[in-house]
Amino acid sequence: MATVAELKAVLKDTLEKRGVLGHLKARIRAEVFNALDDESEPRPTLSHENLLINELIREYLEFNKYKYTASVLIAESGQPAVPLDRQFLIRELNAFEESKDNTIPLLYGILSHFLNGTKDGIQNTFLKGSSLQPPNLKPARQPSGREQMDNHLRKEEKNNIEDLHISQTMKR
Q1: pLDDT tens digits for 12-44?
Q2: Which of 37, 98, 117, 123 has its CA 20 to 30 A from that of 137?
Q3: Is 10 exposed, middle or buried (0-12, 13-18, 19+ CB in 10 A)?
Q4: Cα angle 145-81-79, degrees, rounded to a multiple of 5
């Protein structure tokens, strides 16, 4: 007969393998934060920059299904409960979106731009995302946000190498 300690260990392993344990811990942290949060204490006013940064982070967190982390961010920062309009964010960042896929967080496009450098001296941020796949609604395993970003960067690198090869061929 198994001891209580052995049953606990098996249960913990099972929950970890299924990804449930991390989810439960995050939910407990969020609930503890909400219980301890003193709503009578006024939040400091958000600067315009912090409002934009928090919104970019919220979009990223929600895309990657970090909903409890996003709820803590919103509660702790005083960010409006309703997300800001994506086109408003793009205008405020003086950026433009090349991709028609607006399900990819803007942070991925910003990161891609800085990892790949500017093209032709243009300083605007190019918000790409076409090589990242939006969340799949099928119950099959979806790639994590990290896997999607890695795939996106590999495609960008391949495109850069192809562009370099073409330009070298044209010089000959």
Answers
A1: 899 888 888 888 888 888 788 777 776 777 777
A2: 98
A3: exposed
A4: 80
